[in-house]
Task: structure prediction
Amino acid sequence: MSLQVLQNVNLAEYTSWLIGGNAEYFCLPVTMDDLKEAIEYSKRNQLKITILGGGSNILISDAGVKGLTICLKKFSQTTIKTANDNLYIETLSGTSKSELLKIFLKYRVTPALFMAGLPGDVGGGVVMNAGVAENFEPREFMQLVDWIEVIDLDLKIHRIEKSKLKVSYRHTDGWQPHIITKVAMSWPMEGDGGLLQKVKDANLLRLTKQPLDMPSCGSVFKNPEGHKAAQLIDQCGLKGFQIGDAQVSMKHANFIVNLNKATASDTWNVMMHVQKTVLEKKQILLSTEVVRLGEWD
Ligand SMILES: Cc1cc2nc3c(=O)[nH]c(=O)nc-3n(C[C@H](O)[C@H](O)[C@H](O)COP(=O)(O)OP(=O)(O)OC[C@H]3O[C@@H](n4cnc5c(N)ncnc54)[C@H](O)[C@@H]3O)c2cc1C
Result:
């Protein structure tokens, strides 16, 4: 067996929030064979599987994650093709969005602008249908996607066309309960010469608006229909609200930053306080964008 399965691995360093307890069992598959070995291992030992992508939209419990955590951040290989004035990319799901950004920049296609500053992996981009508020084209990850491949627990691979997936705001359904292994994307090659400068400008703008110098998971709550979650939270006077080392960012009210040693329960309690306060003062129930993983009471 070439895949290494480790025990009691701290997961905080695999998340952008730098928060969370230990994985009971943990592995980092690089190839499809590794991933298959990981699935077989989980079956042999009757372990529940938890998938981590880039870890940029998850809150892992302080009690950690039971079973086998499969982190896909090294599961990355890409093929690129151009045909009929289109750029075609097929990539394993652990490829980072920053790798995609480089490809889009190389071919001077506009998804570069969308991808600039979007953390995490391609698989997480599909699951969360990651998107931006700006009027870019595309502005949601699934606009790029043609089909995905998933693997089931019997190691069978299934290809799912985008038309069979149910895509909504910050969420994609129709691939569960499997593991997304590959994502195929395409985009017309219209060739924008000024793209690099536009990407630099977009990154600078993000820097002025978001606390990118502190550990966070980006926006914690989804924008309710017709509203901006950040604005609602700000209007409730919650910027700077803090429990332990988890704080509603002073710079962007929909970000919760880890000031130093925030725990998952501090962070969750801040989220619940924000949700309750906004409901009381604005009669709007915020729903969380961030996904909780692991053991919670
Ligand atoms: C500073 C910052 C800024 C951000 N800005 C934005 C933004 O502008 N727009 C936006 O939409 N998001 C933003 N995010 C959130 C996050 O980057 C995105 O949601 C991203 O797409 C998550 O990808 P990930 O690989 O990190 O997923 P993870 O956080 O690792 O996982 C998210 C969920 O997907 C599941 N998952 C991941 N990969 C797979 C797979 N291959 N198969 C099955 N399940 C899988 C996980 O189990 C988990 O449930 C931001 C985050 C940060 C830290």
User: Anything to note?
Assistant: The chain has three domains: 6-71, 78-196, 210-293. The first helix runs from residue 32 to 44. The pocket of flavin-adenine dinucleotide is lined by residues 16, 51-58, 72, 93, 118-121, 123-125, 127-128, 130-132, 170, 179-180, 212, 216-218, 291 (CB under 6 Å).
